[in-house]
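Shall we go through a protein fold together, starting from nothing but its sequence? Label the sequence line and the structure token line clearly, so we can match residues to local backbone shapes. Would you write everything just below, so we can both look at the same thing?
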Amino acid sequence: MSGPDQGGAGQDGQGSGMAEGVPDLSVVMTIVDGGATLRRCLDALAAQTGAPSIEVLVPYDHMSTEAGAMAADYPGFRFIDLGAILGGMVPANPYEMHAFYDTRRSEAMKRATGRLIAIIEDRGVPAPDWAAVMIRLHAENREGVIGGAVENGVDRLWNWAIFFCDFGRYQPPLAEREPEYVTDTNIAYKREAIMAVRDLWEVKYQEAQVNWELRRRGVGLMLSDAALTVQMRPAVPVRALAAERLHWARMFGQVRGREISAGQRLKLCLAMPVLPFVLFVRHLRRQIAKGRHVGTYLAAAPMVLFLLACWSLGEFIGYAEARPKPAASRAEGRG
């Protein structure tokens, strides 16, 4: 592993790791909560077992300066000081804050030197063998995009509600080829695959846009529960959680809305009033099919419905704001 980068975004920050050869896996850390949450995740990465060689990249900026103070505690990791990004903006809501996550990931991915490039977030603590398993999965499978599983590690009803809404599709048991979604909190790309669509994440990385384009180009996607992360999210006020759901769904609606026609967007907007209930039943069926946490899901049902209602409203706003690609561009992508 190489040492911390010094200076701003203009430096390439190659570090000393290149003298030792190309890493098998580069791990891009997405700082969401920072502080103790980030430190717990970094500790788990430092304690990985069985991985031949990995590099860990921790990009931070004017909104996450506390991360830079941790560099001395993790001398083998690359802490990348991006300085003031996005014009020095101070985000006013979760939608604007998400732009920081996307920009940090993009900048770190451009600096990653590994044969594989993975992304995790500080809330998701990787299992001790996570890196080794990701490397093995890519060696054994031709798919260019491999996502891992996610478990909930905080036994609090609100955390369960968030988990069911956000990560229910990624909980074990999990083995799927060509999934529609792969979470950006636990994902690894073959280098040639992700670099083939660098133009899409050169400024900001958004996983749905990147993964859908890779699938259109014939790059395989898969999910496996062998590579596990555990969500350890701190408590958050309900108002802040509602705003997060709404604004993150707004962003998703914009991304998805660019992929479809105006007519399809209109149909989705008209369906929004019933979407929370459709999603609630879909999540319940998933828990029943997996044979896991059905009682907990029912206990958290009011919270789940609240979060789904916030998400549906945000998705509606995103579709209304989206401007679809020209029809020719969509046809070209399908080809």
Remarks:
- Residues 238-334 form one domain.
- Residues 6-19, 328-335 have pLDDT under 50 and may be disordered.
- The radius of gyration is 19 Å.
- Residues 238-259 form the longest helix (22 residues).
